[in-house]
Amino acid sequence: MNLNAPATSTSRHPWFWVIALLFMLAAGVYQRMTGPTYPKRVRVELGGEVFRFNLIRSETSTTDARVAVPDLGPGVVGKLVYRRFPTQDPWTSLDLKYEAGKGKPEWAAYLPKQPAAGKLEYHLELSTPEGAKRIPGAEEIRLRYKDPVPAPLLLAHIFGMFFGVLFGVRTGLAALFGPQKLARLAWETLALLTVGGMILGPFVQKYAFGALWTGWPYGYDLTDNKTLIMWLVWMVACLVVLRAKGALGRWAVGLAALAMASVYVIPHSARGSQLDYSKVQQGVDAKKAVTTGR
């Protein structure tokens, strides 16, 4: 597509919104499923039967984290083995206990709650008629705790970010195909990213982990940093569109949309807030011992 071609109107506008909506939904699913706090999917084969279930990787700091597996059949017992991350603490074992509950019966144990940004690493050790099994494999699962975030604030933040993506993709399509009102779409995209990412995002971070900003220049939180980069490129694009008409503005918006798409390839919550337990042991308040980690 030639971005140097003159802008013309097109009857395909409704389809541009459909394409943008599909991209927004796909980005949301990808971000949720690739992030380090999304439940770990596990597959276990016992007695010729395959069991699939999820293991938790995020919990609020006010609640012990329930780790549960389905009833894997007669003769199967297990333990939950954990320690604080990143430390060299000795491993602690908890017996899995049978819980009938309201749904299918499960075996469960509860990881002790931690301060905000505190992490525990854990695995399961099962004793079965077929021998011992470790879940999941040789790796550990890392679970991070966070303080509760008010639901209206969290929803407004999510709304701003995802509709920012919707408008951003739609604006990128406008840059490619040259309809009218490109500048208005670009500024609407910037407004959504500003409110959702640069204003509400830090407040969500403050509630969850006690800090308004943990990206550059204060830390290495990739979520904060990618939000900042995305906001900056859209700010530049809007300024270019404001001052330059025609191809230059379309190029600026097209590059901003491409940068946005690239940013959303990075998993959410990567290198996020992490409690430094060594500082806590030295007497530092947990709220002041939060860094950015793995």
Explain what the structure shows.
The protein is of the alpha+beta class and 294 residues long. It has 2 domains: 13-34 and 149-292, no CATH class; 40-146, Immunoglobulins (Immunoglobulin-like). Helix content is 41%, strand content 24%. Strands 3, 5, 6, 9, 10 and 11 form a 6-stranded mixed β-sheet that branches. It has a 3-stranded antiparallel β-sheet with strand order 4-8-7, with no helix packed on it. Strands 1-2 form a two-stranded antiparallel sheet. A hairpin with a 6-residue loop joins strand 5 (77-85) and strand 6 (92-95). The model is unreliable at 5-11 (pLDDT under 50).
Give a short summary of the structure.
This protein is α+β, with helices and mostly antiparallel strands. It is built from six helices and 13 strands.
Question: What's the main sheet like?
Answer: 6 strands, mixed
What is the oligomeric state here? single chain
Overall SS class? alpha+beta
Considering DSSP H and I runs of 4 or more, what fraction of the residues is helical? 40-55%
How many beta-strand elements?
13
Count of helix runs? 6
Radius of gyration: 23 Å
Listing every helix as H and every strand as E from the N terminus to the C terminus, the arrangement reads HEEEEEEEEEEEHHHHEHE
Overall morphology: elongated
Uncertain runs with pLDDT below 50, 5 residues or more?
5-11
Distance between the termini: 40 Å
Beta content comes to 15-25%
Integer count of domains: 2
Can you give the mean pLDDT?
A: 88
